[in-house]
Design a protein that fits this description.
Layout: H1 2-41, H2 50-64, H3 68-73, H4 88-95, E1 108-115, E2 118-124, E3 132-137, E4 143-145, H5 153-159
Antiparallel strand pairs: 1-2, 2-3, 3-4
């Protein structure tokens, strides 16, 4: 009879450990979700945009290392086939050593806006010029300038799964 109770006690200890680990896992997921939500609401970081934010970080890393050709390629352009509306000389004017972005390590990300098809990073270089609105597309991670520092009303509504009724 003692052997039976010993086996029963061992099983209950295993169940207790499984429940304890399960509750710990739920608590960790809840904390990570709450932190992600708080950071994304404040406009700094969001786990759903981590690929896009790493792409922007990689772009500024290339600029810091003065590797302008690979940085230009991140815009979907290359020297052999430059972009029609964004030539390499124009890129160097915007991002090269004589630009406001000459010291990318001094940049400050003022906000990160999640859009339906990517993110917009509002970047301040501390210059007298307005902040730069950098767009990173989710599909192919190409970079471009965003026209506005925030998503348009239509794309914001799509990302929140809302219905927009136009007058």
């Amino acid at each position: 009879m003692g052997e039976f109770l010993a086996e029963y006690r061992g099983g209950s200890q295993i169940r207790e450990k499984v429940v304890q680990w399960g509750l710990t896992a739920i608590a960790v997921v809840a904390i990570v979700w709450a932190a992600d939500w708080a950071l994304s609401v404040s406009g700094h970081f969001g786990l759903r945009d981590i690929r896009e934010q790493w792409q922007a970080h990689r772009f500024f890393s290339l600029l810091s290392d003065r590797k302008y050709q690979p940085a230009y390629a991140m815009w979907g352009c290359d020297p052999v086939r430059p972009c029609r509306d964004y030539s390499f000389p124009k890129f160097m004017e915007d991002w090269g050593p004589a630009s406001i972005a000459a010291r990318p390590s001094q940049r400050k990300v003022k906000a990160v806006e999640h859009c339906h098809s990517g993110i917009i990073e509002v970047i301040d270089f501390g210059a007298k010029k307005d902040a730069v609105n950098l767009y990173v597309g989710s599909e192919d991670l190409t970079l471009s300038f965003a026209l506005y520092p925030a998503c348009t009303l239509h794309s914001k509504a799509e990302s929140m799964n809302s219905i927009v009724v136009s007058p």
